[in-house]
Write a structure and sequence with these properties.
By secondary structure, the protein is of the alpha+beta class. Helix content is about 25%, strand content about 10%. It is built from 3 helices and 4 strands. Strands 1-2 form a two-stranded antiparallel ribbon. Strands 3-4 form a two-stranded antiparallel sheet. The protein is globular, with a radius of gyration of 17 Å. The N and C termini lie far apart (about 60 Å).
Amino acid sequence: MKSGPKPKNILERLMDKVKCELDEAICWVPELSKMPKGYTKIGKSGQHGGWVLAHRIAWEAYNAEPLGDRLVMHTCDNPGCINPAHLVAGTQFDNMRDCSSKGRWRNQTGGGFAHA
């Protein structure tokens, strides 16, 4: 049987990649691979492997609950940020409404999203 240091869990590996001061006022952007729209991702270890979005790992760890079908939105509008103080859970509708309220979402005809 091998002995040695215990492998780090995904949250520990994620936080090792954050090189800034852990101040709630600033974005924490880990030094990780980025997806085309700027979201950071981290590899899952173990039998099933694959990738997971870093901000989802951070939100679930901080809030100690699974997200399920909910999305994680960035109040800072920085898709690479994993600072839990900048993350809120919501539905796809919440996300579309947030984008529209900030002037970032347009439908096919160029208009904004209808607010309910």
